[in-house]
Amino acid sequence: MNVQEESVNVVELRIPCKPEFVSVARLAVAGIANRLHFTVEEIEDVKLAVAEACTNCIQRSPDAKEIVLTCEMVPEELRIVVRDNAVRAPGDDAAELASGSLGVFLIRSLMDDVEYRRDEHNGMFLRMVKRVAGTS
Amino acid sequence: MDIKVNVRPSDDEAHVVDLVGEIDVYTSPTVKDAITELIDEGHYHLIINLEGVRYIDSTGLGVLIGALKRVREHAGSVSLICTNPQVKKIFDITGLVKIFGIYENEQLAIKALA
């Protein structure tokens, strides 16, 4: 294992794809972001972005059973992947992916890098990165 | 996490909806129900007090936008009371500051109605 690998801490959280569990994801990610040197405002940005990603899964993936959040803590950077296990036909809500909802707009506004697409099983895949201010 | 909703008439013709807590995909239906009931009763000038709200997401914004659309059909209005910078920031980012009147307190919101 090289130095770079050693400095990456990973936290994975699985929550039911239900509205009442979004606050659990929000609080968990706030705790994770707090381990890095984010300001209070940046932590609030990350909380909102994660909540919007989970809400997106709930509203657009009615057949999804769970949401999986993977948080990689890298020095000066938090990388978060949010995905659901919905089964969709290829091409479903392609327009949504292209244009984005108000929630996706907020995510793109609050985070530094955002990638939003379907994963290999056609579930939702949203990868976002927040960098500690002054390191981007 | 929960939301507390209190509806009361203001000194003027408006009704005030006091919200305390967090507005997200789980709690926004409660807020929507309270506002919908007010509008159904014929109250078209609403002041939504967000002073006790620590967090709002796009579903909460959606409820407010929906309320504004409905009351505007009756020449009504939706004003917001909000001084929390983090909550205000969401209205700034989305451009909703240009759509809603956002005031620092209830007196200013009522004054703007006149």
Report on the architecture of this protein:
The complex is a heterodimer of chains A (136) and B (114). By secondary structure, chain A is of the alpha+beta class. Chain A has a single domain, classed as Heat Shock Protein 90 (2-Layer Sandwich). Helices cover 40% and strands 29% of the residues of chain A. A five-stranded antiparallel β-sheet of chain A has the order 1-2-3-5-4, with helices on one face. In chain A, helix 2 (22-35) packs antiparallel against helix 3 (40-60) and helix 3 packs antiparallel against helix 5. With 114 residues, chain B is of the alpha/beta class. Chain B has one domain: 2-Layer Sandwich (Transcription Regulator spoIIAA), CATH 3.30.750.24. Chain B is 40% helix and 32% strand. Chain B has a five-stranded mixed β-sheet, with helices on both faces. In chain B, strand 1 (3-9) and strand 2 (15-23) form a beta hairpin. The termini of chain B are far apart. The relative contact order of chain B is 0.18. The mean pLDDT of chain B is 95. Classes of the chains: A alpha+beta (136), B alpha/beta (114). Chains A and B meet through helix 2, helix 3 and helix 5 of A and helix 2 and helix 3 of B.
The count of helical stretches of chain B stands at 4
- The beta-strand count of chain B equals 5
Low-confidence stretches of chain B: none
The proportion of residues in beta strands of chain A is 25-35%
Low-confidence stretches of chain A: none
The coarse silhouette of chain A is globular
- How many domains of chain A? The number is 1
Element order of chain B: H for helix, E for strand: EEHEHEHEH
What is the chain-wise order of helices and strands of chain A? HEHHEEHHEE
Q: In the CATH classification, which architecture of chain A applies?
A: 2-Layer Sandwich
Question: Overall pLDDT of chain A, averaged?
Answer: 86
Spatial sequence of strands, sheet with the most strands of chain B: 1-2-3-4-5
Question: How many beta-strand runs of chain A?
Answer: 5
